Amino acid sequence: MNAWVELLRLPALFTVPGDALAGAAAAGAxxxxxxxxxxxxxxxxxxxxxxxxxxxxREEDAVDRPHRPLPSGRIRPAAALAAAGxxxxxxxxxASTAGRRPLAVAGALAATVWSYDLVLKRTxxxxxxxxxxxxxxxxxxxxxxxxxLRKALPSALALGTHTLAVTTVSRHETQGGSPWAxxxxxxxxxxxxxxxxxxxxxxxxxxxxxxxxxxxxxLGRGRQPGRERHPARxxxxxxxxxxxxxxxxxVYAATAARPLFHxxxxxxxxxxxxxxxxxxxxxxxxxxxxxxxxxAPVTALLTAALAPAARRFGRKVxxx
Length: 320
Fold this sequence. Notes:
mainly alpha, 15 helices, 0% strand, globular
């Protein structure tokens, strides 16, 4: 069991549900049971990628990381490949229960995952493929909630950009390298944090604010027909959403930037691996900040609540 936990990097699973939740919020849709199907599909496809990754890297890991489950003999390569295939099929089946459009997005996500692990990983297109997979995962949540995927594209681009930076750093985690990868990651983190906190036209009036009654109350909305309006209350509560968005963006920046800064100063394999782990954990506050930017404070807080568990279990099992 411990070998499978290590192979599948189970602590990293806490970074997955926020993709679909942020996608539903960004698409201006209310989370539904179909959103849960999208989350379950995402979890399966993510773990399929983890198992397939180690199967594809088994010869390289025998040299660089002989303690991994496959080169150490604790799990047979055929079992890892079978797990990847079974998890992929299960993920697609779960997506199909949410409708044809979510199944199409999940199919594209599965194809991207398999292409990355088997073909693209060691090519210049590798980081772009991984970024595309994360962006598609966010869009899967929007599709399952019957939202407008065009509205979700900016959030998908933000998550994909962060993933691109983390994946670029991860290419040096076994051998170490130059400080340029973590430095570019720092610049990307700063740019994303700034873009999330800045005000844009209609940002606080996004349709996703109606996804939760509690979110409506948070914004001073959700009035019953015929009730008196309270513009002063709305004006007072709107800054709260801006503050939440800013706080989550700050947590995202702090989670990702500190290990990246250390890796830039000393790009050793150990510090580079810590930077990659920090980048993976930072996806949770980033997802939460994107949900808050879309006007969904309840979704943002629920997503952010996954961060402590990811950090706790990440100390026991490596995410990289």
